[in-house]
Amino acid sequence: MAIAVLEQLGKKGEIVSEKAIYQGPIFKLVQQEIQTPDQMTVKRDVVFHKPAVAVLALTPDQKVVVNVEYRAGVNQESLALPAGLLNEGETPLIAAKRELQEETGYVARDLQIMTTVASSEGFTDEKVTLVLAQIETDQKAAKNFDRDEFVTSGLMAYQDLRTRIQTGTVASAQTVSAVGFYELFCRK
């Protein structure tokens, strides 16, 4: 049974029609009529989103850089890893290094891509590349926020972040995914 399920992976639907609803600086919303691989015809609202990165930046003594930032989608200040959109022509590693410095002042070194996650495949193509980085607390540069953001950053014991994820205090999908991936495949 499992092999039959896996044979379905990657099959694409046919976009029968598409109507643009909204175009903004970060995403575009369209309504699509789709002929699915199993021959159903469905109508869906789809958000096409710019790619992003999230950075799990660790110190040698296992502290992690975290941000508190207002997030309109949940209408509150949220705790999460530093993250942001890729600029045109940027690779995820260059974007991760830039975003970490812009938001926190920390200079990343030894960056490596852990994985890329899809935030919600049911309605968006948004992909977030999760990057592992090392920092030294004495190596900082100037912060350079985007004109519409203000971020409070700090260091937290990595174990404290894990506990906050376990208790639901931290619910950011990219933060939970980055820490989970790190625990499963990177942590020594």
Automatic annotation (TrEMBL):
Protein's recorded name: Adp-ribose pyrophosphatase
UniProt KW keywords: Hydrolase
Entries under InterPro entries matching the protein: NUDIX_hydrolase-like_dom_sf, NUDIX_hydrolase_CS, NUDIX_hydrolase_dom
Presence of the UniProt keyword Hydrolase in the record: yes
GO molecular function, one term: hydrolase activity
A single GO cellular-component term on record: cytosol
Listed cofactors: Mg(2+)
Occurrences of domain Nudix hydrolase (ranges): 48-178
One record GO biological process: nucleoside phosphate metabolic process
Organism the protein comes from: Loigolactobacillus bifermentans DSM 20003
Source domain of life: Bacteria
Pfam families reported for this sequence: NUDIX
Hydrolase among keywords: yes
